[in-house]
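Write out the 3D structure for:
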Amino acid sequence: MNATLKKAVLSALSEKDETAEICTDKKDNPEPDPDLRDTENIPLKEDIHEYFEREVKPHVPDAWMDEETIKIGYEIPFTRHFINTQI
């Protein structure tokens, strides 16, 4: 059974236990729960780590961020700024 199929079977036949210990991988690193994954839009001029400590940690003390997936840039919602109202 390949890893993808094994993960699908485990997901389908198991349920979460909020009181269980943290699951770890083979190297003893904690495994993230994809259902709890979230994103934040942080003002560009603000330090990411300061924002995280101030705005996230007080509400979710065991939260962490994956430094490799941090994206810095602008978001331009075209439908909000460039919608054509002349129909």
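The mean pLDDT is 87.
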